[in-house]
Amino acid sequence: MSISVIVPTLLRPLTHGEKNVSVEGNSVAEAIDNLESRFPGIKARLISDDRVHRFVNIYVNEDDIRFADGLDTPIKAGDSLTVLPAVAGG
Q1: What's the rounded Cα separation, in Å, for the pair 72 and 75?
Q2: Strand locations in 1-90, DSSP E?
C-alpha cells in the first residue's frame, strides 16, 4: 500500500530534492525501511537503536506516533507520513 512521505528541507538532499515521496508499508517502521532502500542514509537520520531520534517527530496524518504505537503504528493506503525535526528556541 502506498503512502505519501513529506520530507523536511534538512533531509531533501537525501531524497534528491524531493519534498514528497511515495513508499509502501503496513507500519511506520516498514515505510522507513522502504524509504531507506530508495534513499540510503535517511533511516540513520530518523532512527537509532530501533527508536525515533528524540529530536525528530513523525506523524501519521495528523497523529504523533509517540502517542500511538511508535514505529509499530499501522498505516494504510492514502495515509501521509510527515517527518518534522524538533525545533528548540532560546
Answers
A1: 9
A2: 2-6, 20-24, 47-48, 51-52, 56-60, 63-64, 80-85
User: In 3-state terms, what secondary structure has residue 12?
Assistant: helix
Spatial distance between the Cα atoms of 87 and 31, rounded to a whole number of angstroms: 24
Give the pLDDT score at 90. 59
Residues 15-44: tens digit of each pLDDT: 999 999 999 999 999 999 999 999 999 999
As a whole number of Å, the CA-based R_g of the chain is: 12
**pTM of the predicted protein model:** 0.92
Torsion of CA 89, 50, 32, 78, to 10 degrees: -80
> From CA 59, how far away is CA 31, in angstroms rounded?
12
Given this structure, which CATH class describes domain 2-85? Answer: alpha beta
